[in-house]
Amino acid sequence: MRTDVQRLLPRWVQAAVIAVLLVFVMTPVLYMLFASVNDDLEVARGAFWPTSLHLDNYAKIWSTVELGAGLANSVVVAGSVALVSALVAVATAYVLVRFQFLGRGLILRGLLALQSIPGTLMLLPVFVLFANLSAVLGMQVIGTRWALFVTYLTFALPFSTWVMVTYLRGLPAELDEAARLDGASSWRILRSIIIPLSWPGLVVASIFAFLLGWNDVLFASVMTNPDSRTVAVALQVFGATQEGGAIPIYGQLMASALICALPVVVLYLVFQRFLVGGLTAGGVK
């Protein structure tokens, strides 16, 4: 009988471990799903299985939580950050990997150093900076989508650039040399060779940048107003209004959380193949 020398654990042990992990991962998700269609009083009593179906919770949240406006703001801001950070990161990484110049090593070390700065330390400086900028320009800055976009882009670019640096190092430089022999410029090489071959790394950088803007509550709660509020802040405000007093609207709260998590799940499912390639083949190792 042929044995698999690469298998470290017996098959039944692997199945048991996977089953235990699935229980830990899926139990909270199933609880949210059941609570979203259950009666609020039953959820407050600790019931796991729904005693009655309240599918209207998924219709009510669009008015009680203001989910539509929050989703639109999050998609616009997080999507813009993902697209711009990936394009700027691949161009910056191409220069850092393919060219030698004074200060190149300092820039690379700076990219790593920026990852160690907690975002909470930058909240007050960013707020003061935008407040002063608003006074100088004579226009509103805080409370706009583009202010939140600039804030997220500041934090997303260092990580995205480092991801692309590590990925481009795995691409052979002979491709550039062959293109230059044919008369291609650096811009043509970047556009026609580097970017098409870097899709896995670009997807990784884009998704991490998208998640940065989608999941953030700290900066969005300070830098937005009710019109530019993201979906994470909308959920936070809705949850805060349920504290104290009568029984919270657990069904609508859980339904809102599931709908907000759905775009991220779909994003991972669609780009799963690129994520695996970007994190293993030539990206983050």
TrEMBL record:
Segments forming domain ABC transmembrane type-1: 71-271
Xref: CDD domains: TM_PBP2
Signal peptide: none
Topology within the bilayer: Multi-pass membrane protein
Top-level lineage group: Bacteria
Gene3D superfamilies according to UniProt: MetI-like
Transmembrane domains' residue ranges: 12-34, 75-99, 111-134, 146-168, 189-214, 249-271
Keyword Transferase annotated: no
One GO cellular component, as annotated: plasma membrane
Main location: membrane
Annotated GO biological process: transmembrane transport
Cited InterPro entries: BP-dep_ABC_trans_perm, MetI-like, MetI-like_sf
Keyword entries, A-Z: Cell membrane, Membrane, Transmembrane, Transmembrane helix, Transport
Subcellular location(s) per record: Cell membrane
PANTHER family reported for this sequence: INNER MEMBRANE ABC TRANSPORTER PERMEASE PROTEIN YCJP, MALTOSE TRANSPORT SYSTEM PERMEASE-RELATED
Family: Belongs to the binding-protein-dependent transport system permease family.
Annotated protein name in UniProt: ABC transporter permease
Origin species: Dactylosporangium siamense
